[in-house]
Amino acid sequence: MAEGISLAEQGSIAKEFLEGLLASMNIAAAVSVKELDEETIELSVNADPPTELGVLVGPRGTTLQALQEVTRTVVQSKSPSRTDRILVDVAQYRERRVVALGRFAQQVAQEVSDTGEERALEPMSAADRKAVHDALTENPLVTTRSEGEEPRRFVVVVPA
Question: What is d(CA 15, CA 12) in angstroms, rounded to the nearest whole number?
């Protein structure tokens, strides 16, 4: 836990901010807070139907990343010292993205194994790169490494 305000208080501040943002955008959605561990909270934004939440995700989650950073900044502005990890998810986007990246990574691994040639993937966010590395960590056919500089950092899948 960060020094200063508790994780629960950080979650409350973040939830209040997100609810205000949603109201100002005329988006009817619920925000829930879940403590993932003693240093991490996740705020989930959900609606039924989730169709109007796409604006909060944006292309490849770029708007969602920005929303998470703004939420973290708001919490930090109210904390006398550092804050814990604050994650924001919208309509289970992150969970679905990890599953999709895992399927894609396995397909690439098979291609790399079949051809014997390494393959560089497109630049990705740190979270997406982690999903690819995690998906292939147990695959005996390939290894992975990250190359490049942010924001153009990418994963390379290499035959084992």
Answer: 5
User: What distance in Å separates the CA atoms of residue 128 and residue 47, rounded to the nearest whole number?
Assistant: 24
Query: What are the residue ranges spanned by the domains of the chain?
Result: 7-91, 96-159
pLDDT of residue 3: 61
**Both tokens assigned to 27:** 């988006």
User: Do strands 85-90 and 154-159 pair parallel, antiparallel, or not at all (unpaired)?
Assistant: unpaired
Do domains 7-91 and 96-159 share one topology? The answer is no
Summarised one tens digit per residue, pLDDT across range 24-34 is 999 999 999 99
CATH dotted code for 7-91 = 3.30.300.20
CB neighbour class for 46 (10 Å; exposed up to 12, middle 13-18, buried from 19): middle
CA-wise closest residue to 57 among 96, 102, 12, 11 = 96
CATH number listed for the domain at residues 96-159: 3.30.1370.50
Single-letter amino acid code for the residue at 94: R
% of the chain surpassing 70 pLDDT: 98
In tens, the pLDDT along 38-50 reads 999 999 999 988 7
Q: Note if the bond before 80 is cis, omega within 30 degrees.
A: no
